[in-house]
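User: Please predict structures.

Assistant: First:
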Amino acid sequence: MRRILIALSLLFTFTASHASNVEIQHVFGWIENATLEPWGVKVKSKLDTGALTSSLHARNIERFEKDGEEWVRFEVNVEDQDEDEKVSRKFERPLYRDVIIRGAGGEERRPVVLMEICFGDTVHEEQFSLENRSDMIYPVLIGRRTIQHLGVVDVTNTFMHEPQCDEDSPVEKFDKDNTDEDVGV
């Protein structure tokens, strides 16, 4: 019994000292509004802790070469939550990498680009795989690689933060060295 009490005492001491060193993080609901930057269109985003890489609804995805590098041209068609109307915009971004998605139907290779998205009052440059998500409820899916930079997800809540970014908002540029590429794996 004495050993159990000593072990519990040490456990509580370690937990209390560790908790005081943990940085306070933002808490987000499992569904949040965000804005795609620099476009500024407000979209519903699903924060999915089961997904590793974030995904953005895109159509007419086309790879091309520019200045000796591989780029991706694509069109984003989403419903603007502020205007309650469908909006569309074409983008061109350097290819960051390819991701292989494995599912029941086999493997699929998708392009990944860096895009800026606003959560709360901060713009985050993050990795997004491009895919046609027209059959999905949410045009933007936020995976763990992005969530690790946002904070924590409260699965019992939705819409805890409205995007409020402007030209003076801080921009968290993607930093591969400060990212756990296999977070949670």
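Second:
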Amino acid sequence: MSKGELSHWLMSQRSDFRPSRELDLGFIATNTKTIAIASGKGGVGKTTASLMLAKQLVNSGKKVLLIDCDYNLSNTAVKLGLPLNDNFYSLLSMEKSFSECLHKDGNLHLLSGCNGNSDLFDKSFEHDRFIIDVISEHGNEYDFILLDCPAGIGKETVNLAAYADHRFMIVNPDRSSITDTYALIKILKQKYSVSENHLVVNRVSSQTQYLRVVKSLMDTVSTFLEGQLRVLGPVKFMNTPVDEFDRGLRGAEKNSLHKYFSKIVHKFTDESTGLFENVLNSDFKPSVEQEVQPTL
């Protein structure tokens, strides 16, 4: 498949695709929305964001499939305190059915990746195409499908992000995270003409810092790529030990993390998804002792 054909095929899989000519691509329209959760840099809280977004969508009455697309370095099961498994490889090798490979918690279904599976490491396959095939076959079973993409600008991440109906860029308020996220947005625009993305600023310590990150990215994307960033909001930095944080992530009780992601989901599902002028009215109010010098 040529670069042009691949680009057209990937774009054709999106539910908002409208072909300019008659194509035989086997595409079946669906009401399912696919969201790629991505970041230019690792360690920014992308997997936590994926899990929280999935939980909040379920809480709003939706049925959600979360796919850990880091197929041999999976973290979703670890974050949820689940036993590690090789279900991704079992599905790929057709040893188990799709349903057998899922962890099911009510209306939240998880297809986790493997962790250092040597058979998967040695196997040559297009893992992005495999995931898209899974979505094409089972997408009509869900309201939302979330793709927890590997960090960076690898081919698989770029292809999956281009395929998705929406892209949530998770960024931290530091230069490397912002620079790398812009690089991912730029590659998506140059390769697949993707001009619209959503932005979540994670681990923010002040309103000033948050607004600086938003303005920096929005201005750069608009000026140099003629693209649009829809800002979904901040998530405050929480100085919590990792074990305690993960227990809170697994627990059903509501905490401040749930509050932030509930607002993000509400903003996303609202037709008036916010642009920068709405961000100025954010109710993000860190305490004085958490106020830090912006890193930008």
